[in-house]
Write a structure and sequence with these properties.
This protein is an alpha+beta fold. Helices cover 37% and strands 26% of the residues. Strands 3, 4, 5, 6, 13 and 14 form a six-stranded mixed β-sheet that branches. α7 packs across α9 (268-285), α14 (526-556) runs antiparallel to α15 and α15 runs antiparallel to α16. The chain starts with a strand and ends with a strand. Bound molecules: adenosine monophosphate. Adenosine monophosphate (AMP) binds next to α7 and α9. One of its GO terms (molecular function) is unfolded protein binding.
Length: 621
């Protein structure tokens, strides 16, 4: 049976649908989801075409687009209309490309107006966002076709080092492809999740993710604690990968075979065949000791694993050097790494596996398909966001503090900013006036000490509190913040069971800039806020004290001597005078202490009214 959810911003009913995880890669992309029955992540293999979709977009003469393996076939025959490695251009300006401008077989245009590059195909200009959207559309269609359901929401992964502009560009590409991008997740985070690391919120681990793909190499060191994934350092080379292994093999064959050396520059067919054979040799040598083949039955292509390893040793050594640097930046020793995770097709090369395991001093994890591991982790993240894993903490934090207004307009924080969500927190309050039957609960978001400086999210009345002396009702206010950032606030009066609750969406309508501004304000005004808070707290305590002691005199005055009554009245008046004169917090506290010292023995004498207890809890007006 399909689950039905309510969209809190529109109030509309919405059908719960699958959220996919997407690895939008430089060379290859994949889409994965959580199988509804066995709850395991699987990469989508639509119509037996394989799980990997090459990140290549080809424009036909008619202007249509083809994405994936079919498009890859045009890389050699029609390079000007076939776009690959577009991820390298996302969020980049022409200047950012620097020495790598010649890497691309298609036309990249310097577009001054936006500062970001465009790609010229035939007579049209495309942004890398539009081209990435084509790849995402293809993935979306494959997912919809395979799952037989509309796919409108996704989690997309990006390298840990992607900056804001690159992340935003990835988000925009998702939007263009008709996907609501619920989250942009770091690739190493996804890889760790796929291995189940970080799923238990109590787990604390330091993890190294070694990702060697076709054309890029990344090493990321992550610290995982309480469900939060923190990137300690990254290193790598955006132009180093399995393609370099292939090139090393081709060069070796050229150097050792005169027939190849003499013709390769003129013979396009031969150079193409050589590339294919080199990749085949590399893959074969991952599982065998020797590779033997021929091109067109006449040119011998032979390679032994030992020779291959000699060829690639300098490239592997460069990746290990990057690992060393990343570890240095993270200020860690190899022994402090709890797990090493292998990502990317090139980690299947045994020499790579061994070099990495040796460097970190422990066997690297490679049980999962290294091509799929990032997409699988993205699917797990999507499933968490869908709220299907109630046992798991969401790997996100709330950007601003959530709290309620207490006496004097003070913000009483209940869920501090940077708390991981979902989360639940509560606090007990009481009334400030005898016979108070309603309690106003005002919910705020922000870092300032005074609620008027923060943002009001909701307000409701807890009604029907049975009439009791001030300080007697016990009102539990609980904040429950779920995975989508929806906050439920409930207030329960424990003695009577009276209960009231509201739901609010704290993030709703706040832009990232506004959140940032609110944080900035809290820092700028921190000092003023603290002194203002202290005065308000002192005044509030004083007012409560006045109220309690006056009530006490009224009800229990007969138990006191005339002298005691007189002294109490004098001390009450002194406290009132300090308040009326807008005294500073020290003056107020001196008066409070004097009154308290003098009256506290009375409380013990008259057991049925506990002034101390009334003064202990915070009160809401
Ligand atoms: P990726 O970018 O992660 O999809 O990685 C693709 C790279 O992995 C390409 O350079 C492939 O040639 C390489 N690759 C895939 N399978 C193997 C294998 N069995 N042995 C060695 N390299 C492989």
């Amino acid at each position: 049976m399909a689950k039905v959810a309510i969209n809190l911003s529109t109030g509309a009913l919405q059908q719960e649908e699958v959220i996919v995880g997407i690895d939008l890669g430089t060379t290859n992309s994949l889409v994965a989801y959580i199988h509804p029955e066995d709850k395991k992540p699987i990469a989508i293999n639509d119509q037996g075409r394989g799980t990997i979709v090459p990140s290549v977009v080809h424009f036909t003469q008619q202007g249509d687009t083809i994405v994936g393996t079919e498009a890859k076939d045009y890389l050699l025959s029609d390079p000007a209309n076939t776009i690959y490695s577009v991820k390298r251009l996302l969020g980049k300006s022409y200047r950012d490309l620097g020495e790598h401008k010649d890497y691309f077989g298609y036309k990249i245009i310097d577009d001054d107006s936006e500062g970001l590059v465009k790609i010229r195909v035939q007579d049209k200009f495309y942004s890398p966002i539009e081209l990435s959207a084509e790849i995402l559309k293809e993935l979306r269609e494959r997912a919809e076709h395979a799952l037989k359901t509309p796919v409108n929401r996704a989690v997309i992964t990006v390298p840990a080092y992607f900056n804001d502009s690159q992340r935003q560009a990835t988000r925009d590409a998702g939007k263009l492809a008709g996907l609501e991008v619920l989250r942009i997740v770091n690739e190493p985070t996804a890889a760790a999740l796929a291995y189940g690391i970080g799923i238990d919120p109590n787990e604390e681990k330091t993890v190294a993710v070694y990702d060697l793909g076709g054309g890029t190499f990344d090493i990321s060191i992550l610290s995982i604690h309480q469900g939060i994934f923190e990137v300690l350092s990254t290193n790598g080379d955006t132009y180093l990968g399995g393609d370099d292994f292939d090139r090393a093999i081709i060069n070796h064959w050229i150097q050792n075979n005169e027939l190849i050396a003499d013709t390769v520059n003129q013979d396009k067919h031969l150079s193409q065949e050589l590339r294919l054979k080199a990749e085949e040799a590399k893959r074969t040598l991952s599982v065998q000791e020797v590779y033997t083949s021929t091109i067109d039955g006449r040119i011998d292509c032979h390679l032994e694993r030992h020779t291959f390893e000699t060829l690639i040793a300098p490239i592997v050594a460069r990746t290990i050097e990057s690992c060393r640097q990343a570890m240095g930046d993270a200020k860690l020793e190899a022994a402090q790494i709890d797990a090493v995770i292998m990502v990317g097709g090139s980690t299947r090369v045994p020499m790579v596996y061994e070099a990495v395991s040796e460097f970190f001093g422990k066997p690297a994890n490679n049980n999962l398909n290294p091509d799929e591991v990032v997409a699988l982790g993205a699917a797990i993240q999507a499933d968490i966001l869908a709220g299907n894993r109630k046992d798991i903490l969401l790997l996100d934090v709330t950007p601003l503090t959530l709290g309620i207004e207490t006496m004097g307009g003070l913000m009483d924080s209940i869920i501090p900013r940077n708390s991981k969500i979902p989360t639940k927190a509560g606090r007990q309050y009481t009334t400030s006036v005898d016979g108070q039957v309603n309690m106003k609960i005002s919910v705020y978001q922000g870092e300032r000490d005074l609620v008027k400086e923060n943002r009001k999210l909701a307000e409701f009345d807890l009604k029907g509190i049975p009439s009791m002396p001030a300080g007697f009702p016990k009102v539990d206010v609980n904040f429950i913040l779920n995975a989508d950032g929806i906050l439920k606030v409930e207030a329960i009066e424990l003695r009577s069971g009276v209960k009231q609750e509201v739901e609010v969406k704290p993030q709703y309508g706040l832009t990232d800039e506004q959140v940032e501004q609110m944080l900035m304000d809290s820092i700028t005004h921190a000092k003023d806020d603290v002194s203002a808070r202290m005065v308000i707290e002192a005044r509030t305590t004083a007012e409560q004290m006045l109220y309690q002691v006056e009530r006490f005199l009224e009800k229990n005055g007969q138990h006191l001597t005339e002298e005691e009554r007189q002294l109490t009245r004098e001390n009450l008046q002194k406290l009132r005078d300090v308040l009326a004169a807008n005294g500073d917090k020290d003056a107020i506290f001196v008066a409070i202490d004097r009154l308290e010292e003098q009256t506290s023995p009375f409380a013990e004498r008259v057991m049925q009214i506990s002034i101390k207890q009334a003064m202990a809890g915070k009160k809401i007006e």
